[in-house]
Amino acid sequence: VPPRGREERLDRELRFHIDEQVRALVARGVGEQEARRLAQLEFGGVEAVKDACRDVRADAWLADAGRDLRYAVRSLRRSPGFAAVAILTLALGTGADTAVFALVHRVLVAALPVAQPEQLFVAARRPPEGGGRVGWPHTAVRELEASGVFAGVIARGGSERVTVGTPAGGEPARGELVSGGYFEVLGVRPHLGRLLARSDDVAPGAHPVVVLSHRYWQRRFGGDPAVVGTVLQLGGLPMTVVGVSPPGFDGLDPGQAVDLRVPLSMYAQLRRIAPRPQGPSDLDVVARVAPGTALPAAEERAGAVLRRALEALAPSAARGAAERVELLPAARGFGRTRQQLRTALLVSLSITAAVLLAACLNLTNLLLARTAARHHELAVRRALGAGRGRIARQLLVESVLLASCGGVVGACLAAVATPALLRFASGGVLHLDQQAGASAGVVAFHVATSVLCGLLIGSAQIAAARRERRASARGRTLLVAAQVALSVVVLAAAGLFVQTVRALRGADLGFRADGLLVMALSPQNAGRPDAEALPFFRAVRERVEALPGVEGATLGTVRALSGSTWRAAVTTDGGAPADAPPASRDAVGPGYFRTLGMPLVEGRDFTPDDVRSAPRVAIVNESFARFYFPGQEVLGRRIGVAAADHTIVGVARDAKYAQVRESTPRFWYVPYEQQPNVKYLDLYVRTAGDPERLGAAVRAAIASVDREVALFDVRTQRAQVEEALLPERMLATLAAAFATATAGLAALGLYGVLAFVARQRRREIGIRMALGARRATVVGLVVRDTALFVALGLLAGVPAAAALGRYARGVLFGVSPLDPASLAGAALAMAVVAACAAAPPAWRAARADPMAALREP
Amino acid sequence: MAARQDLLQGTLDLLILKVAALGPIHGYGVAQRIQQMSQDALQVQQGSLYPALHRLEERGWLAAEWRETETGREAKFYTLTRAGRRQLEAERESWARLTEAIALVLKAAE
Question: Which of A72, A272, A298, A547 could form a disulfide with A398 if both were Cys (CB 3.0 to 4.6 A apart)?
Answer without folding.
Answer: A72
